[in-house]
Model the fold of this input.
Amino acid sequence: MKNESEIIARDTENYLPVFSRYPIVLDHGDGSYVWDLNGRKYLDALGGIAVNVLGHNYAPLVNAIADQARRLIHVSNLYYTEPQADAAAKLSELTGGGKVFFGNSGAEANEGAIKAARKYAHTIRSEKSQIITALGSFHGRTLATLTATGQEKFHKGFEPLPQGFDYVPYNDIAALEARMNENTAAVMLEPIQGEGGVRTPADGYLQQVRALCDQYDALLIFDEIQTGMGRTGTFYAYEMYGVTPDIVTLAKGLAGGVPIGAFIVTEKVAAAFHAGDHGSTFGGNPLACAAANVVLDVIADDAFLSRVKAVGTHFKQKLEDFRTKYPAYIVDVRGTGLILGMEMQKNEVAAAIARRMLEQGVIINCTAGNVLRFIPPLIFTKNEVDELVCVLDDCVLDIYDQGGL
Done:
């Protein structure tokens, strides 16, 4: 077996340098913990960026993947398979009806949602094509989804970008109303902005967006790539706000770590699609859907979701206590369930804390420059929250003892 430095050197030599990686090689995991190649243990409060919802090495998931791999891994969408039929039925039921399409990632799911919105809008009027998204959003890295992403830094170097996208500030209903018109095909929002710094909607905002979409015969798309699959303590985040979209997208935790994405559309949107209008070679393959079926069965359980809420409430209170303890260091604590963010006063401090936490055996990350983001496996316990917060306290003190650098 190669040692850590050899593996890092080999990867650096051969892999496209698009990631800012931490200098550790992870080897295996169990529950909410992972171990590196040197045998060092880490509490994982990032969960593969909200992917490993059932933690690591969850036996029913591992067994389902192994069993399916022995039967069929891939056959193409020219044929039916039972795992895909089951997964689609479960998702449709959890979404209150509608038709499901499976892809391989969140970007593919959002790309499909954009196509669906345009396809439906063209049945009304060919000029009806405008897609409005929010500043600070993140929707993916394909050309269409990075254009939909309301952050200019993701656009640079990829011009010319696809046409027909506009942006408004998140939580600013007046700005949205001023931008909408009869040619608006859809408004696409994350109910809670994840990469944008765990930004939550103002009271009534999503309801007002829904009303504007109805007024202009535009579709409402909710990107639940990061917030769906029980992350907020409800299966979809939008359930907390009493607003129903026309299209919703999922990925990340849908198969517990096996690559999959999905978009679900209402029957009226589905009616605009015909054979050949969309497709995917690998999307919805038996292996990914077998994994998704296990995850959906676990997460759709009310008791499981209640536990996510309880642990999330405990976690947020611990972070709020932190804010009270260090008012000069911490600007805000945001989020719900197990998607939480703590905004620090300085960008460099947030990044330094994330690095120090890793050194102390806890994995978190920093997003939007100065926000520490916590998106652990949904099996996280209150004891694990307390373990994390104890390390966080030490790391914050260490960083500020060095002058906040």
Observations:
- Residues 302-325 form the longest helix (24 residues).
- The CA atoms of residues 107 and 301 lie 27 Å apart.
- The chain has a mean pLDDT of 96.
- DSSP finds 13 helices and 15 strands in the chain.
